[in-house]
Specification:
Elements lengths: L1 H19 L9 H21 L10 H24 L9
């Protein structure tokens, strides 16, 4: 069940990150958005714990904000890489 929760969380965090990214930097498919969200959750959690975060009762907003920030960076990187390898790009040369 943890994997299902991670994928659902990755979808939500990835979509939030996609909305936050600057216009024209979000031209990646949904599957790559989910991957960026899942990896953002994992990296964000590691960063959170590395700086002494130990969780709190209820929703730990700081951990999720760090996860979204990591996902935004990953969406921007993935967008550039996806455009370079032949993916569809919204920008016109």
């Amino acid at each position: 069940m943890e994997w299902v929760g991670l994928i659902i969380g990755g979808l939500i965090i990835g979509l939030i990150a996609k909305v936050i990214t600057p216009k024209g930097k979000d031209n990646i498919p949904l599957w790559l958005t989910v991957v960026c969200g899942v990896v953002g959750i994992l990296i964000g959690g590691a960063i959170y714990h590395a700086f002494g975060g130990n969780g709190s009762p209820g929703i730990d907003w700081t951990r999720w904000i760090v996860a979204v920030a990591c996902s935004v960076v990953l969406v921007i990187i993935a967008s550039g890489a996806y455009a370079r390898i032949g993916g569809r790009s919204k920008t016109v040369a």
